[in-house]
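Justification of resources, computational component.

The compute hours requested in this renewal are based largely on the per-chain cost of generating structure records like the one below. Each record pairs the submitted sequence with a full structure-token output. That output is archived, and it is also reused by downstream analysis tasks.
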Amino acid sequence: MVDQYIFSGSLPENASTYVNREADDELNEALLQGKFCYVLNSRQSGKSSLRVRTMSRLGEAGVECASIDLSSINIQTATQENWYADLIVKLIDSFALHVDFKGWWEQNQLNSPLLRFSNFLTKILLAEISENIVIFIDEIDSVLSLNFPTDDFFAFIRSCYNERVDNPQYNRLTFCLLGVASPTSLIQDKNRTPFNIGKAISLKGFQLHEVEPLEKGLFSKFNKPHAIMQEILQWTGGQPFLTQKLCQFMVEESAQEHPRSVEQVVRSRIIESWESQDEPEHLRTIQARILRDEQKAGYLLELYQQVRLSEEQSSVTADDTLEQSELQLSGLVIRQQGKLRIYNQIYREIFDFNWIENQLNNLRPYSENFRFWIVSGGVDESRLLRGKALQEAEEWAKDKNLSYQDKQYLAASKEKEIQLGIAAKEQEATLERERKDREASQKRNLLLTEANIKTKRQIRIGSAVLLITLFVAVILGIFAATEGNKAIIAKREAQNLQNQLASVKKDIENVQKLSQLAGELRNKNLIIESDEALRQAGLSFRVNEHNLKQALLLASISQVYQQLEKPNEVQQNFAESLRFLQNKESNITSEQGLQIQILVKHIEVSLLEEKDQTKAIKIYKEAYDIIKNYPNETNPFKNNQIVTIKNIRAIYVRLLNLLEESKQAEFIQEVRQSFKQYLFTELEYFLKVQDWEGADGSTGNIMLLIADMEGEVDSDSLLESFPCPVLKQINDYWVQYSEENFGFSIQKKIWLDTGNRLGMKDWNDNDEQNYNRFTSAVGWENEGLQDYMERVKKDPRSPSVRGGLPTLTSPGIRSSGGSWYWIFRHRLKPEMLFARLFSRTTSCKI
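The structure output for this chain reads:
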């Protein structure tokens, strides 16, 4: 009896429609012999079903197997440590090992994560399991998205093979890697060759002599099931997903009063309007794989176009280039007899020449010229855009996040366009002047001739002669004046174009100069300063007005020169910056203008080097006034802002510090209140976007600021009278945006549930034990703040992190030791701090 055809996900190990292919026996035999294997192929080609069936067969042969699906591990936020930890946990679960993972992991915490993984395999897994072991690692291509290199992981797998010579135990351990990747793409260091000890298992499409399990389902439905099966394979090429799907479609068709042919079903249910009826998604997956990287998509489309054009002659020889490997991994083409061919007729009809042309048109409209320009090192000006092509490219680029090379290319095209425009205008003006001069000369001669004739006729009338002469002079004067005006207009247009060119050149020069200086900072190991300089260079691309852009770039350049200790260049560049900013044509009241003023003033104070406190306060007051009077325009929480959260906070903090030092009590209260309001806005923003570390820092900053305002910073009892409205507002924000997972009220409940006291004045052994229970309950035990934050990012709803925020120990605004620096200054233990904090929340009814 044939089950329903399964074409979504892995087939169960006992599925009656499973097709046993050559690869099944090849992989099973290789793993039984202890060979390291890898099955790297396109999606929906039957890799996972092959793994399931092979694990079943190996199990029957007495081999212990485990499967790790890397796609089930959180890739985006994974650290090297928790990634290896997840691998070990999955192996413990798969083999049902009795291991205290947490205790074992902590005992080995001095070792690197990879060494811990190695020790687990040798000292625990191989020690507790006496049978042969095969570890299948599926979705291996997931490692390409990790934030750390994995070359060492693949090198380690190779080392397990090499260790067999010295340690026979390793003969019992074998790996099988499965995924959508080429071996070369998995390894960044091309000098390493971990895959040369493995056996590649090739997955071919279903062959006619293999598909008896599928054909059985057609026996009771069609008179000639074998012919139906043949026709299905002619359309699908044996592609597993499509073959199973089309078999199911034909079974459904057989129930109709007038069943259609295989071709009719293929065209109506797969090919026609394929994007809307591609469920489960298959064809869209192929398309997405080819188009996912716009930089490479053009190459892949052109390569596929070559395959189509030369299919009959078979002139595209298969090789191991990155482009060919990527095209094969899409599933669209396969390697046959050393040539590239389209996998099947369905793909051939869907991904036709029209599809190729449409996709190429949707990509970078200047891709071919751009490619040649890049290859030439940016010197082949014949490849630059101009006229309508440039206008279309600029329109296309408006909403795109362009690469630096794209921006260079468009800027170079614009510069060349302006140059050609100037040259054309100048030539046009020259030709126009020459033409007008000729016409003027002809008219002048004609008028003079006519005047002479009239003069001869009326030679005896002196007055008439005089009038005619004056009339001719006036005409000639008016005509000359008109021609001169046109020449002036043409010259003015040429001058405007020259000014535009000069502006573009100046913009490019200063962006390049700032980028170069950022490189010098990096060479001096000033990484943070280098990154900030590059950020400001990038910001300049968002600024439309030339004067504002120059003000930003020159101020940034002067700051870098100060960091490089080149005083001669500092003041010169900053003076230029102010000149551009104060230019009457600069729109300093625009949103960009206001934000650039803030940044320039911030940089100006840093250039003072504490030499003039009064001037520094004046400058920061001006920046503060802009922030206060234009809150919407200077809001750092909107997307793509020039001014950042860090900039605004730094201005507040430094202004407050300067005011405290100069004893300006009147103004300081206003700034504190404004800063308080800003910090609450910052806290709410961080919580909304689930930036838990940022929110933790904002909380500490708010509490320190309020304590400072209340005059409590230097008091051991600062929490006993801490304002209840502030504590309540902070707690409400945390509870609301964490869905009752974090906040003072959540922490207080856990504090009491773990036996801790409130408002204690002394400390005993029981308190020590209870406090340890508290830190364990909220996930702080034996863990640094950064590691805890990584776990929160991974799953903020996990019970293991509940109640751990706010920590009250995050970096703050007053010292590098932490925003709650008085804990260390007055030697107030953290446990005593929490006891007083939760006592205060109780009195505040929180």
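The longest helix spans residues 462-523. The two ends are 66 Å apart (CA to CA).
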